[in-house]
Amino acid sequence: MFTIMVRSPQVFVAALFPLGAAAAVLAQAPVQVNVSSMGFNIPGDAANEPSIAVDPTNPRRMAIGWRQFDSISSSIREAGWGWSEDAGRTWHFPGVLERGVFRSDPLLGSLADGTFLYCSMRQDFYCQMYRSENGGQSWGPSVPSYGGDKSWMAIDRTKGPSRDHTYLHWSTEENPYPGTPFVRSTDGGLTFDAPVSMPDPMRWGTLAVGAEGALFIAGVRSLPLDSDTFLFTRSDNARDASQAVSFTQPRVLAMGGGMPWATGPNPSGLLAQVWVDVDRSDGPYSGRIYVLSGVDPAPVGAVNDPLDVHLIWSDSGGTTWSPYTRVNPDPMGANSWNWHGTMSVAPNGRIEVVWLSTHESGSMNVARLYSTSSTDGGSTFAAPVAQTPAFNSTAGWPQQQKMGDYFHMVSDLTGADLAFCTTVNGEQDVYYLRIGPRPQR
Ligand SMILES: [Ca+2]
Ligand SMILES: [Ca+2]
Ligand SMILES: [Ca+2]
Ligand SMILES: [Ca+2]
């Protein structure tokens, strides 16, 4: 009885959903993660930019890290984290990695055996890697992991010798390692090789590892910064621990527009990351590489839409790419911002995408979270499902005008685990959402 009482954030959100068909589709309501020890919302704090780790040996165990602002009157942020052992139904927020230390850009992931990694960046742009052997309930001492502002992380989960290789990639600017924006760990984040350079380096992107251990990176051009130019590169020897990592010359991707940033509903942040993922199944789209981003589409007649979510793919390992698919189906409009688009590809090849959309409100600052999926290799997407009520994304801003730079999602055979930020309770807080049925385990 008591445990039901303390889930007030979840009940609150569920009560806000409209009755009817849309509500019936909702398998679960979002569950707040940055909660008090009693499970209640903590008034007056802010939390954003979440990243999630899911234990592949027991997907009921998850951890989410985020930027924790104890007061919205401050820009001081710490490395918050929460954990769940009941498939995300309840979350525990024990605290921050290092009390009183400014930390940002959290990146979480899981090794094959369920050891969780948490990469955290300090104010001086050096990153540290923490490990947890107990599903994120506590974290061991950190090791230096190079890194820099706006890193991303991928972990090799193949069964081959590169299993648990951990890769980090970051921007070329304002960082301790500007000329060498990539590093590898071949022992699951315990130690790191020296960072290496990349041709035509990129930023604000992500990394993914294919079924055979090939490494893919997509982003926008970083040197000099050109957010209208999307790039893709791959490494075919990152999997070989005996070789220094090298990359192909990046290819320019035609995404149907450039990437706006620090504008619109997120004036101090990104409106999208460049997401790359790959079909690791042996199904009809095996090996297909996907890149998804928010782009500013060209005007259509008198309508100049500021931001849509576009997807392209490659069946040639990244050499040639498809025309883009517009993932969000809402009408183009001057205030139709489709932002924080986030993608993950399931082990069976299904693609999940979520984004925030302002198209119903007509207001740049009032959005809902939508989700959709594709089972035909990205050619078509299901009708989007609204996963939250409308919320004002400017509510509860800390002294930094953004709702973080990203969300993070991990797909499995039946759905996806999403860590995201919303203000449905009137504050900026981090939530977990299960999309689709939970895996049977
Ligand atoms: Ca709060
Ligand atoms: Ca950030
Ligand atoms: Ca436009
Ligand atoms: Ca749009």
Salient structural properties:
single chain, 441 residues, mainly beta, Methylamine Dehydrogenase, Chain H, five-stranded antiparallel beta sheet, four-stranded antiparallel beta sheet, globular, disordered N terminus, binds calcium ion
Structure report:
By secondary structure, this protein is mainly beta. The protein has one domain: YVTN repeat-like/Quinoprotein amine dehydrogenase (Methylamine Dehydrogenase, Chain H, 7 Propeller), CATH 2.130.10.10. Strand 23 and strand 24 form a beta hairpin. The two termini are 25 Å apart. Bound molecules: calcium ion (4 copies). One calcium ion binds next to loops. The site of one calcium ion has 6 residues, from loops.
Low-confidence stretches: 1-26
Looking at CATH, which topology would you report?
A: Methylamine Dehydrogenase, Chain H
Q: Give every kind of bound small molecule, once each.
A: calcium ion
Identify the CATH architecture.
Answer: 7 Propeller
| Strand elements, count | 30
Report how far apart the termini are: 25 Å
Q: Which term fits the overall shape? A: globular
Helix content: under 10%
> Mind telling me the CATH superfamily name?
YVTN repeat-like/Quinoprotein amine dehydrogenase
Structural class designation: mainly beta
Rounded average pLDDT = 93
Q: What fraction of the residues are assigned to beta strands by DSSP?
A: 35-45%
- Major sheet attributes: 5 strands, antiparallel
For the record, the CATH class is Mainly Beta
Q: Tell me the count of domains.
A: 1
CA radius of gyration: 20 Å
Number of helices: 3
